[in-house]
TrEMBL record:
The lineage of its organism: Bacteria, Pseudomonadati, Pseudomonadota, Alphaproteobacteria, Hyphomicrobiales. Residues 1-114 form the YCII-related domain. InterPro entries: Dimeric_a/b-barrel (IPR011008), YCII (IPR005545). This is YCII-related domain-containing protein. Belongs to the YciI family. It comes from Metarhizobium album. Pfam families: YCII (PF03795).
């Protein structure tokens, strides 16, 4: 089953990291990712830029409305995602627990099964 792992955190904290802090966090995350990548279970991983760079297109009554920024104001923002092929939900939960253990500060991971409508190479 393919899962999307949606990564939420306080973006003011994350985007305030120094270059050295950023590199250290990314190195720890890579140690969690590598076994899944080697097993061909890890698909695309993405980090989103801050919500200040976002544009939202919302369906309107007559035409779409384009708004600067995200639609919802929240303390935690969606900052990135993983795609992972796991045999069970428990395996996806274990992956998230590993990410949480090496990621500083408060963060949360939302796990959602998904379907690929335009299949590609998962092990990119």
């Amino acid at each position: 089953m393919l899962y999307a792992i949606l990564c939420y955190a306080n973006e003011e904290t994350v985007f305030a990291w120094s270059k050295d802090e950023e590199e250290a966090v990314m190195a720890r995350l890579v140690t969690v990712q590598e076994p899944y990548a080697r097993a061909g279970k890890l698909g695309p991983v993405g980090r989103l830029m801050p919500t200040t760079t976002a544009t939202t297109v919302r369906k309107g009554k007559d035409e779409a409305l384009v708004i600067d920024g995200p639609f919802a104001e929240t303390k935690e923002a969606l900052l990135g995602f993983y795609t992972i092929d796991c045999d069970t939900l428990e395996e996806a939960v274990a992956f998230c627990k590993q990410l949480s253990a090496v990621n500083p500060g408060s963060s949360s991971y939302e796990i959602r099964p998904f379907y690929v409508f335009r299949p590609g190479d998962l092990a990119t």
